[in-house]
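Interim report, section 4.2 (structural modelling).
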Amino acid sequence: MKLKKLAALAAAAVLSVSMFAGCGGGQSTSTSGSQSSSTSGKKKVIGFAQVGAESGWRTAETASIKEIPKLDPNFELKFSDGQQKQENQIKAIRSFIAQKVDIIALDPVVENGWDTVLKEAKDNKIPVIIVDRNVKVADESLITAFLGSDMEEEGKRAAKIIIDKFGKDAKLNIAELQGTVGSTAMVGRKKGFDETIKDCPNYKIIKSQTGDFTRAKGKEVMEAFLKSDGDKINVLWSHNDDMAVGAIQAIEEYGKKPGKDIFIVSVDGIKDMFQLMADGKSNGIVECNPLLGPQLLDISKQVLSGNLKDKNVKSKEGVFTQDQAKAELPNRKY
Ligand code: GYE
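Predicted structure of the assembly:
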């Protein structure tokens, strides 16, 4: 026990040094809302370990989470950006434990590898709420609650947009841009999509590679796909909008018309993608809601008052096609 506490304190010290150095540990931590509960004895503190800043979806989620102290001044938020690295997120959790936060909220970059650090949180009696992506742990009691989307359902919805357009018997060569390997968003979306197209004997995924959910990598990987199979690909299935935005640039540079020569479907629903769809350059969006701050606050209050209503809370989302893009654009909040 003593050793563990020392390790946690050391991790906190390393973190605060890197904070003051400006970057250092490849991870940044910030606090919003005044005085922590550990010093004032009043405010409840949520420590949020974020994945990174890889996409428009992520930026919107971070902004929504940072609203928490404004929505309820009895709450303070400690926010850490893991820069897409699990090791940074583990350090952040250890620092939150050392700072004795009231709740740890984790948006995990990948699903596996959290057992040890979440056990440390449990040993220190700090409830853990998993947000957005999920974790796989042997002991479910390490998790107090989960809030996020049904990623498998999103993959199914993406496949259905394609089936609705072309029918089950069409001959299609599909290029797939995968999200971060081992993340729930990638694993779930792939599974849901693959299972749904099993009914379509001539749908073939001829290219499939990760673009790590970023525009830059989406573009780079699509360029490589086009170079080898540019004349064969007629559908692009992208696990998120940002990679599709990058891929659309690659398709245009290659001399093809995105949305016409290549039918494009992606997940998230960021404004940039709605704009591209309104311009006729993409064909379908499966919405994934990043505005999770208010729901996280609500669940945190339930947990702290000992009245958790539901251990698994799903966020609400829809599906949009090209004909709806112009009308929906002014309503987009992210
Ligand atoms: O779709 C993607 C982001 O985990 C749901 O992560 C999230 C995904 C989102 O990078 O844009």
